[in-house]
Write a structure and sequence with these properties.
This protein is of the alpha+beta class and 418 residues long. The protein has 2 domains: 167 residues, Chloramphenicol acetyltransferase-like domain (Chloramphenicol Acetyltransferase, 2-Layer Sandwich), CATH 3.30.559; 240 residues, Chloramphenicol Acetyltransferase, CATH 3.30.559. The protein is 36% helix and 19% strand.
Length: 418
């Protein structure tokens, strides 16, 4: 690409979420990671490996022309880059905390590439690469791909292969006649659901107006319970957890049907499965009979409704916004759900927590970001436990805890066959 071009649909979704953020919140699209280094890695090895992955992926060398907020463009990937890797000497602060501090500084997308890195050393020995990226540059799947490639490049920086396609290539395909047809079908999916869905939402109170809370339930027993129900229902584990969560929300709302936003990874086509960019987009699904007692039956319905929704996961958010503007009574989603998927062989990106002892634990955190839906559950499955992080706006801790514990109890009860 020799001149600026349109954003891909995933990039455009990120841009719509962030373009109106005040200066004090412009760090919120950032994600932080602390990648442990194998023993004996030198500063030069780490710098060479980092340069190998940045050179390989166009998204990490891309800046953006956002002067017209309604028509952002991505610039051609820069050929030259600054591969300086500052070394931070550890002072007792943990690597995750240091990475979070690094993420608190926003990116200027017009002047900077959407990532930064530091090498953490302990008493002169490199221990971690602190890596921060803007969500427009890479989603969770892409970030883990970068992690895996970085580890390989530490020993074989020339062995990563040819430059893969980037977001500009994806955007070009999405603007072909076939791509435009798929976008029209996705928009039709939105129109049909917005026309059918009821206006249902979680309660709001004066005491919680304008507040955001975040709680995470860590549970070892929830993982085998979800797998047992999934096997009985012959659906995915994510569908089972979604069913339990939706039922908890529906009972708090006092409604049988909910409009729910699902996070679609959109990595279903082989060529784009491992492209480094942001491909995540919210896609709506209408879930009916959500308060039912039979979680197996609900999981089956959720599974098939979700698969239908994911077929329309790539959509033009600008067109969806225009559609909603033409429908003054268009309902807002009651909740949102994301079952985190990362490439095979990835390490968990969150601690399992006290649930390792077999006792579910609920912890509270200060949200790093409140971008996105009002009531958003992000589920992470590790080899030992299930963690459900709920970020909710205009909702108190008691209600947040009730939703999390209701989801957890639904999984355990269904697994017992009750």
């Amino acid at each position: 690409m020799s001149e600026a071009g349109p954003l891909s649909l995933g990039q455009l979704s990120v841009w719509h979420d962030i373009r109106g953020l005040p200066a004090a919140r412009r760090h919120e699209p950032n994600n932080a990671a602390a990648w442990p280094l194998p023993p004996g890695v030198t500063v030069e090895q780490a710098r060479t490996a980092l340069r190998a992955i940045v050179t390989r992926h166009p998204s990490l060398r891309t800046r953006y022309d956002v002067h017209d907020a309604d028509a952002p463009r991505q610039l051609p990937p820069d050929v030259h880059l600054d591969d300086h890797l500052p070394v931070v000497e550890g002072d007792g602060t943990g690597p995750d905390e240091l990475a979070a501090q690094l993420a608190a500084e926003p990116f200027d997308l017009g002047r900077q590439h959407g990532w930064r890195a530091r090498l953490l050393a302990r008493r002169g020995t490199a221990s971690h690469l602190l890596f921060v990226k803007h969500h427009i540059a890479a989603d969770a799947w892409a970030q883990e791909l970068l992690h895996q490639e970085f580890r390989r490049a530490l020993t074989d920086p020339a062995g990563l292969g040819d430059t893969p396609p980037g977001p500009a290539d994806l955007a070009a395909e999405q603007h072909t006649p076939a791509g435009l047809r798929r976008r029209a079908q996705a928009l039709d999916h939105w129109a049909q659901l917005l026309d059918r869905a009821p206006s249902v939402g979680l309660p709001r109170g004066a005491a919680t107006e304008g507040r955001a809370v975040q709680g995470t339930l860590h549970s070892a027993p929830a993982r085998p319970a979800a797998h047992a129900v999934a096997e009985r229902a012959r659906v995915s584990v994510s569908s089972v957890v979604l069913a339990a969560y939706v039922r908890s929300v529906a009972r708090m709302c006092g409604a049988d049907a909910l409009l729910v936003q699902l996070m679609s990874a959109n990595r279903f086509a082989g060529r784009w499965r491992n492209v480094v960019t942001s491909m995540n987009q919210w896609v709506p699904v209408l879930i009916e009979h959500a308060r039912g007692d039979d979680l197996v039956e609900l999981a089956d319905a959720v599974h098939w409704s979700g698969l239908g929704a994911f077929r329309h996961g790539m959509h033009d958010v600008t067109a969806v916004a225009a559609l909603r503007a033409r429908m003054p009574a268009a309902p807002e989603p009651a909740c949102a759900f994301n079952y985190v998927a990362v490439p095979e062989g990835s390490a968990p990106d969150a601690p399992v927590g006290p649930a390792c002892a077999g006792v579910p634990a609920l912890t509270w955190e200060e949200p790093f970001t409140t971008i996105g839906p009002r009531c958003y559950a992000r589920v992470l499955e590790t080899e030992r436990a299930l963690s459900i992080r709920l970020t909710a706006k205009d909702l108190g801790r008691d209600e947040c805890a009730e939703l999390l514990r209701g989801t957890h109890e639904a999984l355990l009860t269904a697994a017992r066959g009750n």
